[in-house]
Structure formats: structure tokens, C-alpha cells
Amino acid sequence: METLKFELCHFENTKWAESLTFYADEIKFFVKLLNDVLQHNTAENITTKAEDFLALFKHSESEIEALAIAILAQEKSFAEYAQGKQFLFDQQVQMIHERRRSAFQTLEKDFILHKHQLYQFLSNVL
What we know:
The chain is 90% helix and 0% strand. The protein is built from 3 helices and no strands. Helix 1 (2-40) runs antiparallel to helix 2 (44-82) and helix 1 runs parallel beside helix 3. The model has no long low-confidence stretch (mean pLDDT 92).
């Protein structure tokens, strides 16, 4: 049973890491678009909204980085387990992983919402 829990957590970590990398790349693209909007628009309502989006995505970047670091740390302990070193999949490890799952789901939900709001904003100003 411990092996199955380990494999599930490793699988989730892998999928989350892939998604976080993709989201980070999307943010770079969004920041470029928003900077273009700021360069070509002087209307206060547009610049304020663009700056708000930049702040949202900057916050998302820091959340992505923190989550990625946590995933890498857990994967390091999993790698030691896979090499035969002692690893106990106890309640604490499970609780930490469940919190990480919740954090990822919240980040993903918020990111998708902000992305759709950005698309709507950009469709009106580009």
C-alpha cells in the first residue's frame, strides 16, 4: 500500500510540475502582451487594468515558484526512497501532499480565471 501511495504522489508531482512550467511560460507571454498594451495605450482605465493584471500574474509567479520548490523537495525524498533509503509514508507526508494538492488546485483555478479575464480584456483593447 505504501508503494501505491508513493507512486500516486510521484505521478501527481510530475503532472503538477509540468503544469506549473506551462503556466510560467504563459505568464511570460501575458506579461509581454500587457507591456505592449501599456506602451500603446494612455487611457487611465486601460493602463490601470493592465497594471492590475501584471500584479496578479506576478503574484501567480511567486506562488508557482513556491509550489515548484516544494514539489522538488518532496521528489528528492522520493528519489532517496527509490534508491533504497528509508522512507516512511506516514500521516504527515500524506497531509503535506494533500495540502500541496489543494494549493495546486487553487492556483490552477485562479490562474485559469485570470487568464480568461485577461483574454476578455485584450479582445477589447487590441
